[in-house]
């Protein structure tokens, strides 16, 4: 028996939210009294496998193969299945990145196991995993309990704190992927970065998002938003109204039909607070609303608010932060 | 070529906050039901494949008998045929749904491509298409933003995942889920609506499909509203923008969130 965590790599580097999941998995494994295993796949695995030990894994399965250089679902499914078997896993976890969500679900389905996708909390109950997940677009929460031997969950980034790396070492066991190129259905023809530079929204500790409120001068508005974000190392987001108006590309959109974020602080700048926007950011720890309409619905959900013109408030706020944060 | 589009009927997003835990528990959700917004992109793409490749399209929904409205929307948009899989008597999880939908696709005969939405706005699992691909044994490309080409028994698509856009080629038959960058779903035309209203939509009982043994591996318990914020918003006043900004930064610093 063991708790197994997939440590995702991007360009042979661990994706940070995988460590959050591994940190929580340590607690779960201790509660179950089982071993904590990690699995690393890719063209190269050594550095991440070593780091997994430092972040708490007792044993690390490494599957290194040139066939895994690019993420391909069917090849990664095959690898992860081998690791589940090798580790005798009864709990399988992955960070709920796009890939983590699909890979964990595909393996769960193949192994006839239940899954809690995009869970925001995990615990052990009666010797089994139980997960909390938001449903109905963050309007309801549900506890997922499992029947069956293997229990699988993907874990929404920023649900658990980043563990502290120690100097422990884990035993690294190499596994053979056992596939040839001809066994893999998908052929990758090209890979391009899709997000521009800047902090990734899903992982961001702070998000500054702007809406239709910047309409008078969208270019200046988003420049002020970027300045504020840069002063705090924050990611920039937007409402759908701002995206639909063409102020910024769709990848910035937060909400029901955009990204889900759960930062420590979410600045909603010139955003009214529509239900569909709230669906993507209501999990934020502190919501700050900056809006010139004191009756905007966003103030009902915000912890802090400033009523005023964003073109005046944002520069003042950036100046103040620079003064404090140096 | 034949394309199957999987469409779910879900609550109108504006009414999601009003859906109560009890309604979900009992299965009697009172909200206005519409076609899942993400699935309009799937339907639109199937219609466009009709124009590009002469593909025939069929929309399939598993749901209550009232879920025909979502199918009518798809027909009104221009989808060729529709089928309702009546789910009464079925209790299960997303793998149960996936098994039944996979069986419904199989029952259509030679389907080359299954197109689904990216997520349902009620269950939010983004897993049903993974299960359908798994049960059918088809390869999967999720979050497709463009179908580049269908030729020589393969489909080439662009998909977005975690900061990269990949161009991937898959052998057919395959399953794809589509993201909203892929197209702009059309509004049903007046003629389309008339035609859809006259169409009779075949209803197949889930039990009548060859879906294999249906197992349920997960249970939903303790459905509840998230904790509502109880404290009122603290508004920072001041004579100048700088004064307001300073008070806000003070609060954030003392909360240790900056
Ligand atoms: C199916 C569906 C899915 C949707 N998905 C999403 C989604 O994913 N994300 C999303 O955001 N929306 C989504 N929406 C749209 C949503 O309903 C709202 O229309 C949208 O969020 C409004 O964006 P906004 O707040 O920027 O614009 P508005 O509602 O127009 O608000 C603009 C705000 O800016 C303020 N303002 C104006 N000028 C200034 C100024 N100079 N200084 C300060 N404040 C100012 C105004 O007081 C107002 O409160 C969806 C809708 C539907 C039907
Ligand atoms: N009951 C259903 N009937 C038809 N299609 C469905 C059903 N449930 C889910 N789907 C499809 O699977 C996608 C993902 O749904 P979900 O896994 O619930 O987030 C949806 O966008 C639909 O295309």
Structure write-up:
The complex is a heterodimer of chains A (326) and B (258). With 326 residues, chain A is an alpha/beta fold. Chain A has two domains: 182 residues, HUPs (Rossmann fold, 3-Layer(aba) Sandwich); 120 residues, TPP-binding domain (Rossmann fold), CATH 3.40.50. In chain A, 30% of the residues lie in helices and 30% in strands. Chain A contains nine helices and 18 strands. In chain A, the strands form four sheets. A seven-stranded parallel β-sheet of chain A has the order 7-11-6-1-4-5-12, sandwiched between helices. A five-stranded parallel β-sheet of chain A has the order 15-14-16-17-18. Chain A has a three-stranded antiparallel β-sheet with strand order 8-9-10. In chain A, strand 17, helix 8 and strand 18 form a beta-alpha-beta unit. In chain A, helix 5 runs parallel beside helix 9. Chain A is elongated and about 60 Å long. Chain B is an alpha/beta fold. Chain B has a single domain, classed as HUPs (Rossmann fold, 3-Layer(aba) Sandwich). Chain B has seven helices and 13 strands. Chain B has a nine-stranded mixed β-sheet with strand order 9-8-7-10-6-1-4-5-11, sandwiched between helices. In chain B, strands 2-3 form a two-stranded antiparallel sheet. In chain B, helix 3 packs across helix 6 and helix 4 crosses helix 5. Chain B is globular. The model of chain B has no long low-confidence stretch (mean pLDDT 96). Chains A and B meet through helix 4, strand 7, strand 9, strand 10 and strand 13 of A and helix 4, helix 5, strand 7, strand 8 and strand 9 of B. Bound molecules: flavin-adenine dinucleotide and adenosine monophosphate. The site of adenosine monophosphate has 24 residues of chain B, from helix 2, strand 4, helix 4 and helix 5.
Helix/strand order of chain B: EEHEHEHEHEHEEEEHEEEH
The bound ligands are: flavin-adenine dinucleotide, adenosine monophosphate
Q: How is the quaternary structure best described? A: heterodimer
Tell me the series of helices and strands of chain A, N- to C-terminal: EEEHEHEHEHEEEEEEEEHEHEHEHEH
| Biggest beta sheet summary of chain B | 9 strands, mixed
Question: Structural class given helices, strands, pairing of chain B?
Answer: alpha/beta
